């Protein structure tokens, strides 16, 4: 499996985490403004890296600061001699701490910025990994919107969005340092219904939305909101807004500004992709 993209849309940290968590043997190749860099992975760990004249761990730290350029991955690689000894988790934690320090200095001119403790940095890293795994699962389900049966049957699209929303609501219940009232699904539905009235017809059981089948296929919507397909499209837009609401809430789980920014970039790409796929559904 290969990936490629623009660093203005994708976070390199997220790409590296995905490769490591999938225990892949692969190469990650990055280019920007005439500069080239490469990181090699084997068995779920970073084993070699180069970035310009830098080698090993310093090359990884340098690469993590790149926010523009392009990248690609390949599983067909010959891995050079090992020059990285630290575990990939430790590398990314240290890289994030260095980015935080640099941003703080640039913002305040303070040469002695507050550093996250090792425990705080590890907590941020764990939260980020959990969120990446969540998005990975959501993306696998979201891919079904590209199937012809989903594009031809708006009810299936609505049901899929309900499933995604329930997964995110369940995940939110286990994230530390979140306001319990903010993650209540009923509150999110009520707030979203102001902009997307059809969402108000979704039923919730506890902190989960009821499936279309259990809600009698939204039969009562026709008399309230008119054309059935219009309601379905509006409901999907509202469910996307609820997902965006939760992703925004998750920002509060991070102590590191740089990791928080990376999460913003990641979920915005996901939301954009989801909207494009919904545009192909025949509401």
Structure overview:
This protein has ten helices and eight strands. The strands form two sheets. The chain has a six-stranded antiparallel sheet with strand order 1-6-2-3-4-5. The longest helix has 25 residues, at 118-142. The chain has two domains: 4-101, no CATH class; 118-278. The radius of gyration is 21 Å and the shape is globular. A hairpin with a 2-residue loop joins strand 4 and strand 5. The chain has helices at 12-21, 57-64, 88-108, 118-142, 148-152, 154-172, 185-193, 221-225, 228-250, 257-278; strands spanning 4-6, 26-32, 35-42, 45-51, 54-55, 70-74, 204-205, 208-209. By secondary structure, it is an alpha+beta fold. The two termini are 33 Å apart.
List the helices and strands and how they pair.
Layout: E1 4-6, H1 12-21, E2 26-32, E3 35-42, E4 45-51, E5 54-55, H2 57-64, E6 70-74, H3 88-108, H4 118-142, H5 148-152, H6 154-172, H7 185-193, E7 204-205, E8 208-209, H8 221-225, H9 228-250, H10 257-278
Helix pairs in contact: 2-3, 3-4, 4-6, 4-10, 6-9, 7-9, 9-10
Quick structural gist:
The chain has helices at residues 12-21, 57-64, 88-108, 118-142, 148-152, 154-172, 185-193, 221-225, 228-250, 257-278; strands at 4-6, 26-32, 35-42, 45-51, 54-55, 70-74, 204-205, 208-209. It has 283 residues and is α+β, with helices and mostly antiparallel strands. The radius of gyration is 21 Å and the shape is globular.
Characteristics:
283 residues; 6-stranded antiparallel beta sheet; two-stranded antiparallel ribbon; 10 helices
